[in-house]
User: Fold this.
Amino acid sequence: MTELKFDTTCIGNAIVDVIGQTDDAFLKSENLTKNAMALIDMDRAEDLYGKMTTAIEMSGGSAGNTAAGIASLGGKCAYVGKVRDDQLGDIFTHDIRAIGVTFETVKSTSGPATARSLILVTPDAHRTMNTYLGACIELGPDDIDPDMIAASKVTYMEGYLWDPQSGKDAFRKAAKIAHEARREVSLTLSDSFCVDRYREEFREFIDGGVDILFANEDEVKSLYETDDFDAALEAVKGHVKIACLTRSEKGSVIVTATESHKIDAIPGVNVVDTTGAGDLFASGFLYGYTNGYSLADSGRLGAIAAAEVISHYGARPIANLKELAATQLPQVKA
Amino acid sequence: MTELKFDTTCIGNAIVDVIGQTDDAFLKSENLTKNAMALIDMDRAEDLYGKMTTAIEMSGGSAGNTAAGIASLGGKCAYVGKVRDDQLGDIFTHDIRAIGVTFETVKSTSGPATARSLILVTPDAHRTMNTYLGACIELGPDDIDPDMIAASKVTYMEGYLWDPQSGKDAFRKAAKIAHEARREVSLTLSDSFCVDRYREEFREFIDGGVDILFANEDEVKSLYETDDFDAALEAVKGHVKIACLTRSEKGSVIVTATESHKIDAIPGVNVVDTTGAGDLFASGFLYGYTNGYSLADSGRLGAIAAAEVISHYGARPIANLKELAATQLPQVKA
Assistant:
């Protein structure tokens, strides 16, 4: 086997988040589906941005957030995603490297600008995302470095990447390389509407060899077309090695063919903005899993990382997650 | 007199802030003067940014922050400042318009990029700023619209604008128009190092007709070259109509030739990032002053606005300041 260099390589849409406060009336007046991610074109992005309040910009992107969380926990992580050679691309590149993630994907030098997601946060801390994919549509199989994938214990990919066609091809190439190198493949379903768009393809891809699946309650129910969480939980068991199913304040469940661990959410969190909760749960779990922690402790690390990110605006950790985790799990040394 | 359209027109360097956490050891290793604003060139900006942690981007600029605060209090406000036609310029333009400020300065279409300030926040909540002026150096007298100045009760300018030569010319033009229209001129000294650079010119400009002066303790002491705050306070009295002298947790003093009001700082604030404290004090005072509040109540509005902005990262208000002020001053109706 190739020498290990990374705990996890994360592949996804490289996005800068534009975060603003709003209220439910605004979501309604703009026909936005609360809690969902909608893809928008540049005209709609400009229209909606023009109606948004003063915003904060922070690097984001689901798998990018996960990579940042793994690095903040002290994990060795690489990221693959496409930005343009513009100011937002420079911000994205700076931020992911600054936290210690290896990021070498070649920037596009023509075509659409770096992607942004207009994230509207309501007073109940829920987020509604409107993403202009921009340069992300340029990510393709050529951006997948076989040596990097073969040198990673886990290759983790976001379901959102299924939206741009060439992203899907990159996705499949990476999964094939990982399996040939006897590494593991992990997928997050990203969004129940994303599952609606690609249910059959996702199921086929999962059966073709996803080892670790991340999904929230809505997503796993959508995947197996059931209204019942327990039914969905039973359904997923035979299809993947490990399923990590997150349920917001109800915590999460980690299931394998033979084990099931219920993990409580961290209590007493002042929830400000739920953006990134699932992404950071994946950070904690993947860091734990690739560093020899038990499934239950890996899940607990996920809960700790998720609790940090929902306590402030933005989808990347502000605290040092390793230090934070060390105060809550004796196995972690700061 | 021209019909009034604005309570205040604010003129300054239009800057996007890049806010990151750091520690005192880093400031020392980079030879940065804590709490000060240093001007840096593009090479140094890239070098320093490369060493900074993951950052948050938010619109800033001293007078821009003041304008945003006035608008958040419900005041009628215009802003004059120069950005380029780039992504950071779009962010700056969006944010200041989104909060309700009139901003019509023509963007530059060539030359340096939109300005940014790399703001390093230490665990004690102090900020150290490193500003690449970029497109700000293009602001000049042609950007001053005489009708806008004549239609503003107060024209407010930041001392930082003295750094680019053409900014100084714009500054003088605006002051002349304001006085000819029998309006008032206000100046903030911005930074004690800025005062060191331009002490004689500032004194001359102030004597030539600054009606309302804002300065913190260090700045006013530097202006009159004394180590004693009370001596500086006495010195400033004869030179301006109103001096607003801020002293961090010691509150502020509003002085005229005949009156003196000591305003307490708001107690019990969890101070996260002091960036914008002085800018937002000016917002509160100018909103109050131009809307018929007493000097003491105007100072209290300043204290309320400053307390909000230091309770979170970033130099612009996140809360609605009018609603916040209404809970603390019975004269304010939300």
Residues 6-326 of chain B form a domain with the UDP-N-acetylmuramoyl-L-alanine:D-glutamate ligase fold (CATH 3.40.1190.20). Chain B has one domain: 6-326.
